[in-house]
């Protein structure tokens, strides 16, 4: 097949993925939530939100409440994705991953707004401070620059040197540029958030493009997260079942990881319900379920 020929041609990339897969192991039965956000109230005395991005008043998102929700669901570890509430000020998330390293892992928000040089320095400093990944938001790129431009290339090249994954907050409109930048910068492991915001009804073409990207680039991974953002049905999101089974068949569960998208999920089905759904999707083996709920994240984030 054409995809197979392309992958065989890039032997070094395939070697890296084989090495990753060979070291994937269940370090425990502890569930890992690969994607969530936390923030404190706007009037918090210690950590102040960005003036352009105040936290929503109608949803609780602090670390203590998160831990209580994790306990109810039986989730051990959470990957804290830097929220836009604090933009590029990582003090709050940094404090949490230092004070509770057994429960929290940090994923930074790459400061792509000022170009390649700034983002490289920022990523190096944050990794030195304990962060284990970086996220790219295309909406924060310099004016006129696309996802395939030099800033995202710098993020991927820096991540490869630092041995951390990069999450891509992309939608179908970004898929062409995502494919282009992956072709140029293939060294880092790249995670696509939230099914790339595809939908199972009406967006089957988008899902096929996403699937093609995942098949073409074996260093890409998928967060099967925030089901409520993608499903066209109410909980328990049964229209997502076929996609999950197709993904396991096409790319393997060791390139998939569950994420709740706390605290936004609280306004939808609820935190424990989101986990219960992911843990009971029909058609998946217990081994595959274990990889999605803990194994893949444990490997990527060195847990």
Salient structural properties:
303 residues, eight-stranded parallel beta sheet, 12 helices, 13% strand, disordered N terminus
Spell out the blueprint of helices and strands.
Elements: H1 2-9, H2 11-23, E1 31-36, H3 63-73, E2 75-81, H4 91-99, E3 104-109, H5 116-128, E4 134-136, H6 150-162, E5 166-168, H7 175-184, E6 190-192, H8 204-216, E7 220-225, H9 227-230, H10 241-250, E8 256-259, H11 271-278, H12 286-300
Parallel strand pairs: 1-2, 2-3, 3-4, 4-5, 5-6, 6-7, 7-8
Helix pairs in contact: 3-11, 5-6
What does this 3D model show about the protein?
The protein is α/β, with parallel strands linked by helices and 303 residues long. The protein has twelve helices and eight strands. It has helices spanning 2-9, 11-23, 63-73, 91-99, 116-128, 150-162, 175-184, 204-216, 227-230, 241-250, 271-278, 286-300, and strands at 31-36, 75-81, 104-109, 134-136, 166-168, 190-192, 220-225, 256-259. It has an eight-stranded parallel β-sheet. Helix 7 (175-184) links the parallel strand 5 and strand 6 (190-192).
């Amino acid at each position: 097949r054409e995809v197979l020929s392309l992958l065989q041609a890039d032997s070094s990339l395939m070697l890296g993925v084989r090495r990753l897969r060979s070291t994937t192991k269940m370090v425990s039965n502890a569930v890992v939530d690969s994607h969530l956000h936390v923030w404190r109230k706007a009037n918090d005395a210690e950590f102040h939100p960005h003036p352009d991005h105040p936290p929503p008043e109608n949803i609780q998102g602090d670390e203590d409440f998160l831990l209580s929700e994790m306990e109810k669901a039986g989730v051990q570890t959470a990957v804290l994705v830097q929220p836009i509430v604090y933009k590029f000020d990582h003090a709050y998330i940094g404090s949490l991953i230092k004070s509770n390293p057994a429960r929290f892992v940090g994923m930074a928000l790459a400061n792509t707004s000022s170009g390649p040089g700034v983002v490289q320095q920022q990523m190096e400093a944050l990794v030195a401070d304990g962060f284990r990944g970086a996220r790219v938001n295309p909406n924060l790129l310099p004016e006129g620059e696309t996802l395939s431009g030099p800033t995202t290339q710098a993020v991927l090249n820096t991540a490869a040197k630092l041995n951390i994954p990069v999450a891509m907050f992309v939608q179908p409109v970004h898929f062409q540029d995502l494919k282009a930048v992956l072709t140029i910068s293939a060294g880092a492991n790249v995670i696509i958030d939230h099914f790339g915001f595809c939908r199972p009804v009406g967006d089957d073409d988008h899902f096929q493009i996403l699937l093609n990207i995942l098949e073409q680039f074996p260093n890409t991974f998928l967060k099967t997260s925030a089901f409520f953002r993608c499903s066209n049905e109410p909980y328990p999101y049964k229209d997502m079942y076929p996609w999950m089974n197709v993904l396991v068949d096409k790319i393997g569960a060791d390139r998939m990881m569950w994420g709740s998208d706390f605290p936004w999920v609280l306004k939808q089905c609820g935190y424990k319900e989101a986990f219960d759904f992911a843990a009971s999707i029909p058609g998946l083996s217990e081994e595959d379920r274990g990889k999605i709920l803990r194994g893949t994240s444990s490997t990527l984030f060195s847990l």
